[in-house]
Amino acid sequence: MREVNLSSLDLNLLVTLKALLDERHVTRAAERVGLSQPAMSRALQRLRIMFKDPILVKGTGGMMLTARAEELKLPLQGILNEISHIITAPVVDPKEMNGEIVIATRDFEMSAILPTVITSIIEQAPGIKIRVVPLAGDDLSLLERNEIDFVVAGTDKSLATLNRATLVKDNFVCLVAPDNPAAREKLTLKKYVSMRHCLVEIGLFRVGIVDAYLSKQGHSRKIAVRVPYFNAAVAMVENSDLIITVPKRLGLLLARQNRLVMLDLPIKVKDVSIFLYWHVRNQNNPMHVWLRKCFDSLRN
Question: Model pTM?
């Protein structure tokens, strides 16, 4: 078998050849692929040289295919179909997806945001396994190293190698134990700054958000306890006179689960955003595209 130098071939001629084999007429084939009749005639001549065969010859009823041309019809269709599949983004059925998806996040997002999305994913794509790992501060380098698929966090970073979408915007509320005197009255700014506070010091929710707004008004709050997790903070609040300030979405959940009393924050604070991050390498990954759509239900 002789070797063929594919780099010397014009693969566009395969589309032209398909039209000629189907139409068996130079003018009609030209119209089909948007060429002029002279251009199609030149293409036919090149095909004859390529295959060392006339391809089309005169017959009693018009042009007819040579034996070689008849042999080319079936494999040519297969080749064009394969090229189309390579170029066209594949459509993936969630029921046929499999593999493990790793999401890095913190306990706020894990408790208040992810359960709904994860439930939706495992119902629609039972072959997918989901692993949630802790996010260390605002470190997004695991995405860069391709060790995880997504980050869900309030971390606000713009990096050329990462894409992101805003999932939710949230404000803050306060939580206190039911027997805390503050639970029985409207929380004023004076009362708020006089109370002992439990602060969660991770990522976006460390000192700087509420405290920055308090500072503008000449106030500061008393931080009595600092912890790295919201769930740990709640356990301390429900058994003490402490107060904790948390995102409202989490506050609603924790108040219901722990029988805490939720109070309005007595100052105006700008909403915070929770983002979904992914690496640009996966922008067009069919599974990732589908998974990102699963997060769309969270957007408000």
Answer: 0.68
